[in-house]
Amino acid sequence: MEFQTSKRKYDFSIPNLGKAKILSPIKMSTSDGDGLADYVNDSKRVYFGIDALINEKGEEVPEFHDTVEVAGPREKIYFNPAHVHAAIVTCGGICPGLNNVIRAVVRCFWYRYGVRRISGIRFGYRGLLENSPYPLIDLDPDVVDDIQEKGGSILGSSRGGGDKVEEIIDSLERLNINVLITIGGDGTLRGAWELGEEIKKRGLKIAVIGVPKTIDNDLSFIQISFGFDTAVTHAVPSVRGAHTEAKASVNGIGLVKVMGRESGFIAASTALAMSDVNFCLIPENPFDLDGPNGLLAHLKKRILERGHAVILIAEGAGQDLVPQTGEKDASGNVKFTDIGIFLKDKIKDYFAKEGVEMSLKYIDPSYIIRSAQANPNDSIYCSRLGAHAVHAAMSGKTQALISLVNNKFVHIPIKVAVSERNHVNTEGSLWRDVLENTRQPASMKNKN
C-alpha cells in the first residue's frame, strides 16, 4: 500500500472501556538498558503519513501529519485475567492465516495473561445468534497446538449475521463474554463497530477488537493484510503453468483469474512476481474488449508478433462488460458474473471470426489459494497481529483493530478503517511498475 501525506485530519483516538488500574502479569520494563522489552504507553504514537515536500530552497514544507497509537502490552490493564471470558470469531470467506491468528490469540491469553476461559464462536457471527445450533468450542494451547499447519479456520467461517446486533449482544451477555476478538474483513469490522455501539448504549464493559482479514488487501489504513503474501505465492505457479501451456501451443493463450473484487493488488503483485504476464487486468483500470484500442485487438497483435500471450485478470475487472446477476451474498456483496469464463468465450469467438488459429487454456486457482496454509511471512505476521489484539483488549481498548502502518503495529479505530477502500493507484508506482513489466498499453479504452 502506498501511503501519502495526510490531506485531512482523521480521528485516530481509540475508545477505552475505562481506566486501566490492574498491574499487568506480564513482566516487562519501564526503563531502558535493563535488557527487558519496555511496556508501551498510550502517549507513544507514530506518524501515519511519512511523505515530505521540499521547496525550491531545499526546505521542508510544513504539512500536518496524523499520528496513530502504538500497539503493545501496557503496564496497567483493565480486565482482571481471572474474571475474563474471551471469545474469538472468524467471519467471511476463509483466508490463509486464520488458524495462525486464532493460535496466537489463545496462546497470548493463556500464557501471557493467565486467562483460562477462551471460547471459539462457530461459523462467524451466526454462532452468536439466539437459535444457533453451533456450540462454543473451549480453546486452550493444546487445542490450537498445530492448527497453524492447516488452511481454513478450525472455528469455521460464514457470511451474514452481523446485522443482528441486539441479538448478538444478548448472547454475549448471556455467555458472560467480556472480550470479543473478531477476525474478518470490511463487513465483519462494520459489524464489530456496531456491536461496540450497542455495548456502549447498554453500558456494558465488553471489549471488541478486530484483526483485519482480506486476502484482496483492500482495507485502508493497513499496510498489508494477512494472507495476501500467501495468495501471491500460490498465484505464481498458476501463471507459470499458463505461460508454459501458451508457449507449447500454436498461438497459445494462457488466461488466469485471481481474486480481487474491488482492488487488483493480487493480480498486480503476481504480474510483478512473474514477468511472463502480458496483460494484467484490474478493477481500477477499465478496458474495452472491442475496437482498435480494445483488449482483443492488442491480444491479436501480441499473438501475431510473439506467438503466445498470458492474461492475468482480477475477478472484479471488466464487470461493466458482463451481464449483472442482480444478486447479493449474505454479507451484502454483489455477486459478480464470472469474468474469466466470459473473457475466455469472447477471446475464442474473436479469434475464430478473425480466422486466426489459437489455443486457450483457462486457469482459476481462487479456492486453492484461499484454502492454502499460510506461508512463513504470513505466519509471522499473523502471530504478531493476534498477540497485539490480546494486549489491546486486556488494556480496555475497544472498537479498534490492529494494523501495520509504516512497519509499526498500531491501533486504528474500526470506524476510520472501514470509511475508505484501498485501491491500486493507477497513477502510482506499483501500477507504473506493472505496466513496465507487462508492456501493455496504459489504457485499453477507445476514445469516445
Structure description:
With 448 residues, the chain is α/β, with parallel strands linked by helices. It contains eleven helices and 17 strands. A nine-stranded mixed β-sheet has the order 2-5-17-16-11-10-7-8-9, sandwiched between helices. The chain has a four-stranded parallel β-sheet with strand order 13-14-12-15, with helices on both faces. Helix 5 crosses helix 11. The radius of gyration is 24 Å and the shape is globular. The N terminus is likely disordered.
How much of the polypeptide forms β-strand, as a percent range?
A: 15-25%
The oligomeric state of the chains shown is: single chain
Q: State the helical fraction.
A: 25-40%
- The spatial strand order of the largest sheet comes to 2-5-17-16-11-10-7-8-9
Largest sheet: 9 strands, mixed
- Extended strand count: 17
Question: How many helical stretches?
Answer: 11
Order of secondary-structure elements:
EEEEEEEHEEHEHEHEHEHEHEHHEEHH
Write down the Rg. Answer: 24 Å
| Stretches with pLDDT under 50, minimum 5 residues | 1-6
Class based on secondary structure composition and strand pairing? alpha/beta
Average predicted local confidence, pLDDT: 92
